[in-house]
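Lecture notes, unit on protein representations.

Consider one protein chain, 135 amino acids long.
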Amino acid sequence: MAAIIAIGVTVVTATIQWTAIWYEWIIIGIGAALIYGAQRRIKVSGGTNWLKLRRGWVRTYELTRVTAHSTPAGIELRFTDRDGRRLSVISDEIQRDRYMWDLVYNGIMHSVIAGGAETNNLLHRAFQVPRPKPD
């Protein structure tokens, strides 16, 4: 971000002399941090039977596949619903809102137990999702 801002300032001023002024770099650093922070926020929304992240969404009660994967950012949940829609989200982003997590967790539980959704071991260990009983 800082590099993009610096290039932009150079193009706008049509000179590179501004780089010798120390406080210009502080302003660029603050601007880059603000832009990064605004982009970093993830907008997660959910309803009684759906979860939306940015432009993607899934039906939480119609999941055919729910897996958890360990990443440097935390545990990533990957969802696939019966219509083939896919969504991946870091679990902490959902768990920050207790009500949202309750809705998503209930959908996961229903999809796994009643719908037979495909899962992996980390999902069962990390989120205490019971395994469906064999038929």
